[in-house]
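fyi for ur records
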Amino acid sequence: MLDLRKLSLEAQLTALLDGEVSPEQRHELEQRLASDENARRLHEKLRHGADFGRRRLDDVLKEPVPLALVRSIKSTQPPKTPIAQRATRPQVKLAPTGPQALAAALILFVLGCGLGYFVGIGPEVDEVATTSSSTAPANTSDWLGDVTAYQRLLIRQPRHLVEVPASQAEEISSWLTTAIGVPFRVPDLSAKAWTFQGARVILGDNRPVGQLVYSNTDGDIISICFRKDAQPPETDDFKETIRDEVGLVTWHNAGTSYVLAGPSSEATLGQLAMEIATAI
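which gave:
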């Protein structure tokens, strides 16, 4: 356990926030916080800094995994060197000595305290975060979560894929154009072994989204979803991601957002999306 008497007040409060103090030390620090207004103010700034860091880490962890990265990991070949042969190689001992470990621990502790302190006392961290969120453009990933949920629903009920079947092509065209406000053509994907089944209207981020549904002889299902752009996108480039084992390819064109959703194992989704973009 740390000897708090040898540490600065900032380091002591950081150790308290990290749970690195004994019950006696915690009691002593809490008594000081109750009687020392400056200590309370510093403790509050450090706590805000730690909370801000945790929120940023959570945001990073929620980002979807790029589809190309997942496929690269799946296609990585195992090492060709036999396990028995690798085991005979001399091993290098990398364990630090006692003084080295102590020095490293002290350096990391000081760096951690400094980072927490400067983040905590930064200029109105909460105000900056609030201002950024109020002026940032709408989060287009919200509707991708809805598209993913509907795609998973289609996979679970293959006998009830559409609201209007493919045989009623004229009704699909007038219905979706009116409901979504976007002119379109139904792409013919029969050359790629995908058969058009019909259409639906779904909700994406509380806005109407057109959904064209296709299937193949293996029972796989893909859907083309589109809606009006709320704001001009930063880029029209094709982007591939995976959510809940559903592959998504997104792009924008002429004020419209598009998503091709299908099995994450389908390696041709990106190429198929490019062909759809020219046909729809």
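DSSP finds ten helices and eight strands in the chain. thats all i got for now
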